[in-house]
Amino acid sequence: GAPQHYPKTVGNSEFLGKTPGQSVQRWVPSRSTRRDVNSSNEKERHDAIFRKVRGILNKLTPEKFDKLCLELLNVGVDSKLVLKGIILLIVDKALEEPKYSSLYAQLCLRLAEDAPNFDGPSPEIQTSQKQSTTFRRLLISKLQDEFENRTRNVEIYDKHDNPLTSEEEEQRAIAKIKMLGNIKFIGELGKLDLIHESILHKCIKTLLEKKKRVQLKDMGEDLECLCQIMRTVGPRLDHEKAKSLMDQYFGRMRSLMNNKELPARIRFLLQDTVELRENAWVPRKAFLDNGPKTITQIRQDAVKDLGVFIPAPMSQGLRMDFFLESPFMPNRLKLDRETLGGLADMFGQMPGSGIGTGPGVIQDRYSPTMGRHRTNPLFNGHSMVPPPQNQYELSNKSFTKTNQISLRPAQSFLLNKNQVPKLQPQIPNMMPPSAQPPRTQTPPLGQPPQLGLKTNPPPIQEKPPKTSKKPPPAREELIKMTEAIVTEYLNSKNLSEAVCALRDMKAPKHFLPELLCKVLLCSLDRPDPDKEHASTLIHSLRAEGVVSSENFMQAFLSVLDQCPKIEQDIPLVKSYLAQFAARAIIAELVSVAELAHPLENGTHFPLFLLCLQQTAKLKDKEWLTDLFTQSKVNMQKMLPEIDQNKDRMLEILEGKGLSFLFPLLKLEKELLKQITADPSPQSIYKWIKDNISPKLHTDKGFVNILMTSFLQYICQELGVSDGDEQSPPSKEQLEQEKLLLLSFKPVMQKFLHDHTELQVSALYALQVHCNTQGFPKGMLLRYFVHFYDMEIIEEEAFLAWKEDITQEFPGKGKALFQVNQWLTWLETAEEEESEDDGD
């Protein structure tokens, strides 16, 4: 086919992972080649399309967005090659102009939805159109390539031994702008869901990782990119589900922020980003980046920030040139175009002066409004000359005499209240047209004109007499009062006096968490008895109804957020907070579940485990085990994501001395080892008695583990491995299986006798075991018969297992298929037996 032809851009050779090399075509003089007419025509057609696309991208503004989008879709996107070229141009433009990233991202969203899709229908289930288009796939591929090679072009210049020339400095600056522009563009696409959240997290993790053989001081570019992506898409990623991940990212950023190996500029960048999150992602004005703006928005900003009003261009064809160069205009009212400079260019051809008056406007000899003020000292609303009926009547008569020129501002100069409500106190004389009196109306002699007032103003109502009620104390005052009361209490230990004083403060509800926060903070650097007294004060305030458990949790989490700063002075702050939490659990101020919820997924790890440690220390292990079991907290979810598995959980709990909370985990790990070491029933029973609490002997989980361990041991002895294709067992193997079951019979009977529900659990353990083995033919039926004949499981348990419809254990359907006939026989035999007993 025709050779692929992409538009010429700076990054052309890097498109979709391709690097310059031998495969890149060199330019060859046309006379030395045989021209392929079709190829040449195709190349010219593509050149024309890419020129048109460049022109469209150069003209792209918020006002023309929809129109230019349609033009772009109609340039002739008829192949994947053209689509690749368009993506290359858009990405290149977005990288060079990071300020307009949001606009280019919107353009990509439109193209992802409306551009032709050249991928065939996928055999997989389509989730959404956005996720399956050729455009989206090629765009992500291009951005991935740019991301992976982000520092390459910058590092080329950093490796030079000699100082960089001015040209090299400029090239390095351009490369850096592109690097940061790519990151910002990725963030903007993430905001629009064109890039999945998981990809954004992967980018952040990549930027935070310290590479092997790379010194920390050389991570500057990556950390700058990290700050850029956080500023762009951080608020979108910082939601409840991803909070733990974001906390881990910012924890790492805080540690890097204080590392002196990094350049100061990077450390301050990290600090700004950390503070941005602490400020609920509300940027300081210096960092406010609103992206591209419409002309209307620029005019509104001019009014808001400078007090300068820029009117919209006239639609009647009146040009600025007429007012600048008219022979009828007096010299003092003429404007010098050069003086206006960029304002005239930015805001288009404007009637009259183009600039209004307002705060911050400097009056000089070029200002047309200066003449107004000189000739009419009572301007600004005190007295105004009514204008002629037609403000812009263009006859010689209107401009013959200077004194006939209206000194009243044109209607378009007058500000609209709805546009800038904040400026009204500063410019009360500027009224919207709707508030002005009719132009033909002349106020009576001797009366000032009534600007915008109704003829019959409403009567002034007398204000009700002020009550002598005191205003509530300010927040600073409340904080001082709280600190004074708490300090006095910790010195005097007079509980009732402190409770009364805090109640009498009558603090508003929104201040209560801060009040408790102060109680905690005031006691952190004091001895342990004082911390205990602070806990007593909090519990008493709860008992008196002054504060709630919710207030305590808010205060607790607020202090936790301040931990990085507090730890510099009080390194054991988390241990102290764990003591407060433990006392709150014991006093039933908060439940274990309420404490666990905000600490899930390793948030502030290992604080939750420290709280449990302190609770066990203050109370006892058995009490805590019961309480924890009732709370139904999933301990695996309380660990960092990387540690959320049973083996790692048991290891961590043993390290913290909390493995007593999960005795069955230890049993599951150790019992099979114990049986293998000594399979005699006496030894097994003694080990269980010594290591497992009698309370657990009637636990379904315990029975499940016991049965599973016995069955696994029997399989080991018979030489059977999980899931393998097995030949039917030999006669010797069947005999050995029966003998081993008989040897374990006393232990099974000890724990299962007269407990039908535990026997059902034992049958489910057998079902899961057979399912793991792939249900070898006859295995389940053999075990059912052995259990029945050896009187390990009773008839009621078999029938209860058959009727039970729980989906908790896999393989029930296959199991019933194998033993259904035997169960029917058992049911019939039991009915016959009961009939015989009746006779």
UniProtKB/TrEMBL annotation:
Gene3D superfamilies: 1.25.40.180. Residues 477-600 form the MI domain. Signal peptide: none annotated. Residues 33-44 have a biased composition (Basic and acidic residues). It comes from the Eukaryota. One of its GO terms (cellular component) is eukaryotic translation initiation factor 4F complex. InterPro entries: ARM-type_fold (IPR016024), Initiation_fac_eIF4g_MI (IPR003891), MIF4G-like_typ-3 (IPR003890), W2_domain (IPR003307). Residues 1-44, 423-474 are annotated as: Disordered. Residues 437-453 have a biased composition (Low complexity). The keyword Metal-binding does not apply. Interacts with the serine/threonine protein kinases MKNK1 and MKNK2. Binds EIF4A and EIF3. Interacts with MIF4GD. Interacts with DAZAP2. Belongs to the eukaryotic initiation factor 4G family. This is Eukaryotic translation initiation factor 4 gamma 2. It comes from Periophthalmus magnuspinnatus.
